[in-house]
Amino acid sequence: METTIWVLGIVVFLALAFDFINGFHDTANAIATSVSTRALTPRRAILMAAVMNFVGAMMFTGVAKTIGGSVTDPTTLDNGIEVVIVTLIAAIIWNLVTWWFGIPSSSSHALIGALAGAVLVGAGADKVKWSGFIDIVGGLLISPLIAFAIGYVVMTILKYIFAKRSPHNVNKGFRTVQIFTAALQAFTHGTNDAQKAMGIITFALVAAGVQDHLDVPLWVKISAATAMALGTSIGGWKIIKTMGTKIFKIEPINGFAADLSAASVIFTATLLHLPVSTTHAITSAILGVGSAKRFSAVKWGLAGRIIITWFITIPITGALAGLLYWIIF
């Protein structure tokens, strides 16, 4: 029992570390557009994002249950704790590498890919719930397309409505409104992303026999929400620069359209208990908005490199987790 407690302690530490890193890695998702348009100062934007992330994380648990039981059944694994440990280590490594190079990659892809790879190597292909895995991956792949389409449509409508207005006055008004859409974006980020660490901790608790259901304990919710908020308070400046300035020159009206579009996709996924990538959603929304503004304004070379990173994340983290399991256990 004492050994189990120590091992679970390691799992909780790694899961909260993943959530903390996810916080500063994905801070850009909520505040990049509002910072780049000077709707908010960086300090105020990060503080607001941290608070709204915490609030969002405390309000929902459906995604956590999906993470905890859709890729594999923790009650059927004799080595569930080991699987969780290498899953988290692989996901953390990938998040740190992509953060270092300023690439807005997906923490969700990293975690799902690593979990599938760890189960595959550590327990065998028959222990992977391939239908659940495919459903999650499908949601992760479809959500950016929807966010792109919504961003394009929203920006097209705004262009039509404000076509005859002074661009200066329009952007001055939207700079104020952006504060609220950035807060909404941070809130929806918390409702979806923080639950991934909750789900993986609950998975470990079930695998260790501490509990026999996937309901998230209150202490897990508070711990994960706090870790996410603290990570958010650090900020991910490299990714903020990429998201806010390098894809295309964002003005307040564009930032409003992108934040609103991404938040609607993320929150809908949360209500459907689907883990989606907040990074994918906001980046795709920015691309959609930029395309509606002027197709040539988007730096498609950079966008292409980001998209490639999205597609390679699952196989790379899966392979990394499998290799770590083989080496460590």
UniProtKB/TrEMBL annotation:
Which Pfam families does the entry mention?
PHO4
| InterPro entries on file | Phos_transporter
List membrane-spanning regions. Answer: 6-24, 45-63, 83-101, 108-125, 137-162, 302-328
Answer yes or no on keyword Transport.
Answer: yes
Query: Which of UniProt's keywords are assigned here?
Result: Membrane, Transmembrane, Transmembrane helix, Transport
Q: What is this protein called?
A: Inorganic phosphate transporter
Question: Native species of this protein?
Answer: Paenibacillus xylanivorans
Which cellular components does GO assign to this protein?
Answer: membrane
What are the leading ranks of the lineage? Answer: Bacteria, Bacillati, Bacillota, Bacilli, Bacillales
**Chief localization:** membrane
| Tree of life domain | Bacteria
How does it sit in the bilayer? Multi-pass membrane protein
The signal peptide here is none
Q: Name one GO molecular function term.
A: phosphate transmembrane transporter activity
Which is a GO BP term held by this UniProt record?
A: phosphate ion transmembrane transport
Subcellular location, in the record's words? Membrane
